[in-house]
Every structure is written in structure tokens, then in C-alpha cells.
């Protein structure tokens, strides 16, 4: 006798009810957590003017005071109660030190605002008392680059001013930010600290060292009126040949004398001419450079070439892996070169860097690629695949201390620069 398969038991009503209750409790818990977070945020925002005055040392003292009181109550040790009271009293005594009005007008002056790496730059901090009474002594902090300058401002009479001078380190190319200037008030133990911001940051541009190149950079750009290319077009100034008329050709290009002689409409063809459009690209991947000084040499090469091309009134686009550099004036270009930094991780191939830069620029007639001594020569040669045959490729390799030389790699010219003062001589010898 065969056994039949039993039908599954219907779900228990109690189990269904428990699941529904669990889901409801979970939803209620999530809602309560969101409400608690909103309430906590509101409380923090409301208390921020007070809690922001407490320094990390102050929070540590408050925590130690609370722990001392708790242990004193739990263990019955009166000594711990005295410790807690002493710590709490220290916080109370520190409160008056953060109060007191300051009516300052503060200014930061940098002279000059732009220097070449290694030149001297000075700063001036001017504090004017705009109040009706003499000010109380205070302390001002001024971030300068990676450092922090601290000034003790004495009592200043109403309407008078006080000045402080400071030096700005300019040994390396950079954009050095001075400011904002903030006044600091607090107790001697550092439990409470009140900061008031008085100024906006001021930038000091430390330009790279550049080499002076001769006008037209010799071999880089020679065509002031236009260079004839191999591209054939129907409208230009350099006559190439005649061909048979095709529907759609402009009648102004018909050569009527030849058409009358042959009995067939003939139109003119021209070789396209092009004003020089130069694309200047530096690959900044750190692994392509043997040292930081070699990277700085490459930046100086870019700045030197770019400044001279701008002075020659040649169309220029300049870029790095991450930056598109201003080329309206030499100063704009030099300001942007101050922001160039080695890229630890990025496009490993120079070709990819150049392709990305060319995508955002007009079609170039000359491309200058700048890289380091550790970049393989094959990387520079691969740039040829990005452009057509009428685009000239020049590669400049920074190799600090090496003999300077000019070589040919495929259809490209590779210029190895061992020192910046040799750049002018090498550029004069370049023949794209």
C-alpha cells in the first residue's frame, strides 16, 4: 500500500503576528535612531559656541573631573572628591580669560606678491585698533605655508596701529598661502581657547627659475604667416593643382581659361596652410623622475618654453596630467606652474597624457612633450600615434647632470637637458 505525500502545514498565525511585530519594532527603532541623530545634531549646533572653546586638554580635564567624582561617590574616597573639585575649579577659573572685546582691523601685505624661487619675500602684519579705548594685549597666529607665525600684540591706543614683519620662505617653487590671521585668547594652562578670524588668506606665487630663450625659439616656430601642409583643400592661398568639376563645387574655384581650352569644367585645388598651434604637455607621474630636483628642472623647462612662445604671439595650449595652464600672459602661465606637483598615481603612459591634453585643445602643428629621465624613449615615440603626419613631435627629457644632446627617435626629436642654462643652446639647434 503506497503512502501519500502529506500537504504542508499552514503557517502559524502566531508566527505571522511575531514577524509583523518584529518588523514594526525594527521600523520604530530606525525612526527613533533618526530622531535621536537629528536631536543630537541640533544639540551640538546649539552648544557649538560653548563647546568650540574647550581645547583637547580641557576635555581631558573635564573627563578626569567627572571620573574623580564618580569614583569618590562609589568608593567613598574624599580625596578623589577634592581632585574632581580642583579640576572643575580650574575650568571655571579659565573662563574669564576668553572674554573681552577686541575691535581690530587686520591686514596682511606681501612684498612682492610674485618672486622667483630663491628670491627674498617679506610680509607685513598690520593691526589697527578700531575701538574707542585702548585694546588689551592679545596673541595673533598667522599660518605661512606649512609653518605658523605667532605674534604677541601689545596694548594699542584707540585709533593707533601696530605692525609686525615676517620673512616668507621661498627656496622652492610653490603657492605659499599666508593667513588667515586669527587672534587667540585663553588661559595659561590651555584649557579654553577662543579664536577670532580677522583676514582672508593671501597667496604668494614662487615662480620656477626660467631660462631666457631667443625670439621664435629658433626651430620651434618659424611660420608667422602660415606653413604649408600636405592636406589638400578647396579654399586656401597655396595653389596645388586642377581637377575635374564635381557637383557641389563652388563656382568661384572654376578655372575658366583651362575649362574653355579642354571643354570640361576644371576647379582649383590648394594645399592647406596653417598658423602654428603649439601644444605643450608635461607628464608629472613621479616614477618618471629620478629626484625632486629633476622634476623641478622639467617644470622650469616647461615654463621657459611656454613663456617664450607666448611672447612670440604663437597660439599655445599648455597642460599637465591634472592641470590646464593659463596661457593668456606669461604671468598667468608662471602662476599656474607654481601649482604643478608630482603625481604618485596616474596615467602611466605619456601617450595617454598627451591624448587627453589634445582632446581639449585645437589641432596642434607642433607638440612638445616634457618628461623625466626614467621615462622610456618608447613612451615619447608612442606620442606619434596620437597625431597625423603633419604634426611635429618634440620631446624634452630632464636628466639632471647628464650630457645634453639631441637625438632622433622614429619621426620625433628628443632633446635631453642636463641643466637649465643649456636649454637656450639646445633649442636653437632643434630642427623639427
Automatic annotation (TrEMBL):
Signal peptide range in chain numbering: none
Protein name (Swiss-Prot/TrEMBL): DUF58 domain-containing protein
Transmembrane feature ranges: 53-75, 81-104
Keywords (A to Z) from UniProt: Membrane, Transmembrane, Transmembrane helix
Keyword Transmembrane among record annotations: yes
Ranges for domain DUF58: 242-394
InterPro entries, per the entry: DUF58
Amino acid at each position: 500500500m503506497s503512502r501519500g505525500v502529506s500537504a504542508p502545514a499552514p503557517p502559524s498565525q502566531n508566527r505571522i503576528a511575531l514577524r509583523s511585530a518584529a518588523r514594526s519594532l525594527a521600523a520604530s527603532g530606525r525612526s527613533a535612531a533618526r530622531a535621536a541623530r537629528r536631536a543630537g545634531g541640533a544639540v551640538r549646533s546649539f552648544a557649538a559656541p560653548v563647546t568650540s572653546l574647550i581645547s583637547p586638554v580641557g576635555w581631558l580635564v573635564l573627563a578626569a573631573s567627572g571620573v574623580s567624582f564618580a569614583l569618590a561617590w562609589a568608593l567613598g574616597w574624599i580625596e578623589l572628591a577634592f581632585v574632581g573639585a580642583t579640576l572643575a575649579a580650574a575650568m571655571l577659573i579659565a573662563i574669564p580669560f576668553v572674554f573681552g572685546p577686541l575691535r581690530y582691523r587686520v591686514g596682511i601685505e606681501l612684498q612682492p606678491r610674485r618672486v622667483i624661487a630663491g628670491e627674498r619675500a617679506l610680509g607685513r602684519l598690520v593691526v589697527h585698533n578700531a575701538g574707542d579705548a585702548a585694546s588689551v594685549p592679545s596673541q595673533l597666529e598667522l599660518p605661512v605655508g606649512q609653518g605658523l607665525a605667532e605674534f604677541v600684540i601689545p596694548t594699542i591706543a584707540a585709533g593707533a596701529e601696530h605692525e609686525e614683519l615676517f620673512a616668507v620662505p621661498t627656496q622652492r617653487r610653490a603657492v605659499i598661502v599666508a593667513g588667515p590671521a586669527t587672534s587667540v585668547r585663553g588661559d595659561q594652562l590651555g584649557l579654553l581657547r577662543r579664536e577670532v578670524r580677522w583676514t582672508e588668506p593671501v597667496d604668494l606665487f614662487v615662480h620656477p627659475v626660467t631660462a631666457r630663450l631667443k625670439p621664435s625659439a629658433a626651430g620651434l616656430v618659424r611660420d608667422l604667416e602660415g606653413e604649408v601642409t600636405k592636406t589638400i583643400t578647396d579654399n586656401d592661398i597655396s595653389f596645388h593643382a586642377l581637377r575635374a568639376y564635381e557637383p557641389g563645387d563652388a563656382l568661384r574655384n572654376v578655372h575658366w581659361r583651362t575649362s574653355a581650352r579642354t571643354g570640361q569644367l576644371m576647379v582649383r585645388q590648394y594645399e592647406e596652410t596653417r598658423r602654428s598651434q603649439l601644444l605643450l604637455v608635461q607628464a608629472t607621474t613621479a616614477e618618471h623622475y629620478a629626484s625632486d630636483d629633476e622634476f623641478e628642472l622639467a617644470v622650469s623647462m616647461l615654463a621657459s618654453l611656454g613663456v617664450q612662445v607666448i611672447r612670440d604671439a604663437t597660439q599655445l595650449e599648455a597642460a599637465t596630467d591634472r592641470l590646464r595652464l593659463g596661457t593668456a600672459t606669461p604671468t598667468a602661465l608662471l602662476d599656474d606652474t607654481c601649482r604643478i606637483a608630482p603625481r604618485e598615481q596616474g596615467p602611466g603612459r605619456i601617450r595617454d597624457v598627451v591624448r587627453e591634453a589634445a582632446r581639449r585643445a585645437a589641432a596642434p602643428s607642433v607638440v612638445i612633450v616634457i618628461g623625466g629621465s626614467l621615462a622610456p624613449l618608447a613612451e615619447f615615440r608612442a606620442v606619434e600615434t596620437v597625431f597625423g603626419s603633419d604634426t611635429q613631435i618634440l620631446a624634452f627629457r630632464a636628466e639632471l647632470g647628464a650630457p645634453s644632446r639631441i637625438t632622433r627617435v622614429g619621426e620625433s626629436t628628443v632633446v635631453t637637458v642636463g641643466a637649465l642654462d643649456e636649454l637656450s643652446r639646445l633649442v636653437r639647434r632643434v630642427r623639427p
